[in-house]
Specification:
- With about 220 residues, the protein is mainly α.
- It has a single domain, classed as Orthogonal Bundle (Penicillin binding protein transpeptidase fold), CATH 1.10.3810.
- Helix content is about 60%, strand content about 5%.
- It has 11 helices and 3 strands.
- The chain has a 3-stranded mixed beta sheet with strand order 1-3-2, covered by helices on one side.
- A hairpin with a 2-residue loop joins strand 2 and strand 3.
- Helix 9 packs across helix 10.
């Protein structure tokens, strides 16, 4: 019996490994989060595009808003995790996350939404694997293609078309900052109509973009070196 179990586990491991490697070059047909959106009635607006078709303002904006240390960490921002744990212990009703862009990609591409030790353990595994196999630019490109950016809106191209009636390649700094500002909760913090939260936070995002754009690691991920 144990021999059969080991064989099944080995097959499952090899299948997921092949899938991870394949996604270095192709986009996922669909994710569990997108399926959930479709079946819940939120709909699914999505249009995968190549990284070269995305305005560099979009990549800069999401790094400024969500993960300024993306060029430096290996998938996990331990200092931010410590701060979040301390905050959550003091204010358990106002949980603060500490996920990097890499962790968010691992969760949104391979896993389901929710909180459990099983999901967190798998998130750590997939984060490690995509950092090892994909590289930072591919992780950022995948994030910009699959992340939820509004009710039923997934990816920067769909968001750009929905909110500004233009392709993602033509997003301005202000527009990219508005989309990035909504990401903590894009269903609640709407870009169109623009919520007060997005209006205020997008200005902070722009300041962070101005500070980060000269960083060599940031420029390398964006392909500007």
């Amino acid at each position: 019996m144990w021999k059969k179990v080991r064989k099944v586990l080995l097959i499952i491991f090899l299948i997921q490994l092949v899938y991870i490697v394949a996604l270095k070059w192709i986009n996922p047909p669909i994710t569990l989060t997108q399926l959930g959106s479709l079946f819940s009635g939120d709909g699914l607006k999505r249009d995968y595009i190549n990284f070269s078709e995305m305005s560099t303002q979009a990549g800069l904006a999401v790094m400024a808003a969500e993960d300024q240390l993306l060029p430096e960490h290996h998938g996990f921002d331990f200092k931010n995790i410590e701060r979040a744990l301390a905050h959550n212990e003091k204010k358990p009703t106002k949980i603060r996350g500490a996920s990097t862009i890499s962790q968010q990609v691992a969760k949104n591409v391979f896993l389901w939404q929710g909180r459990s030790w099983l999901r967190k353990g798998l998130e750590i595994y997939f984060t490690f694997m995509i950092e090892l196999i994909w590289g930072k630019q591919r992780i950022l490109a995948m994030y910009l293609n699959v992340i939820e950016m509004g009710k039923g809106v997934y990816g920067i191209e769909a968001a750009s078309q929905a909110y500004f009636n233009k392709p993602a390649s033509n997003l301005t700094r202000v527009q990219a900052a508005m989309i990035a500002a909504s990401l903590p909760n894009p269903k609640k913090y709407t870009v169109k109509p623009v919520s007060r939260y997005v209006s205020v936070r997008s200005k902070w995002v722009i300041r962070q973009m101005n500070n980060l754009e000269g960083d060599e690691g940031i420029k390398e991920i964006l392909g500007k070196k």
